Amino acid sequence: MRRPVIGITTYVEPATRGAWVDVPSALLPHAYVRKVEEAGGIAVLIPPRHDGDEELVRELLVRLDGVIIAGGVDVAPELYAAERHPSVQSSRPDRDTTELAIATVTRELDLPVLGICRGMQVMAVAAGGSLVQHLPEYVGHDEHSPAPATYGAHPVDTVAGTRTADILGPRVDDAPSYHHQSVADHPGYVASAWASDGTLEGMEDPAARFRLAVQWHPEHGSDPRLFEALVAAAAPA
């Protein structure tokens, strides 16, 4: 059987390699790639484009079996008609454009999708939802993002009867977490996981073949089951 090809959205960031300093590069933490490969898929990277509209994205997606919308910087608040909070990071219009189009077109094509952290937020915004722009003001602590470049870890309870619960069981004991925003509204999705402080940690589309998202970073954990489920759903018939 042909291995499913999973596209993963990427960053464009300055990177240093030997004498080449701060060269703009399309890159992604290798943990995403490793998890897809270990689950039996073939990972390919999807660089963002300022012209990454739905027409271009459709040309790409018909060549893939599944997609991961990866983590990264904050979605521009203007895209969900909100005034920008002072904590919001500088926007990346190329990622916003490309990934919102990916979220929209994958839904039309019923292509299997896993959203991770920012990816979950992109999926919500693409569906007409909105975000909590600075979670510590809402929950009163920094547990979800304790320090720069430092993952938090906290339990997540899944919602019985959801696909997320079927995959992960009733609880994830130590979800790796690094986000200061969260999903507030998610039209067309059902809640599938929560943190004890009321933060939405998962959502899914029960009508889709495989369309779910989590707020934590499973690529940095030891549990492969979300990636295995994505690859299984994306496997060619």
Automatic annotation (TrEMBL):
Pfam families: Peptidase_C26
Keyword Transferase found: yes
GO cellular component, one term: cytosol
CDD domains reported for this sequence: GATase1_2
SUPFAM superfamilies xrefs: Class I glutamine amidotransferase-like
GO terms of molecular function: gamma-glutamyl-gamma-aminobutyrate hydrolase activity; transferase activity
Record keywords: Glutamine amidotransferase, Transferase
GO biological process: polyamine catabolic process
Gene3D superfamilies: 3.40.50.880
Cited PANTHER family: GLUTAMINE AMIDOTRANSFERASE PB2B2.05-RELATED
Name of the molecule in the record: Glutamine amidotransferase
Organismal lineage: Bacteria, Bacillati, Actinomycetota, Actinomycetes, Micrococcales
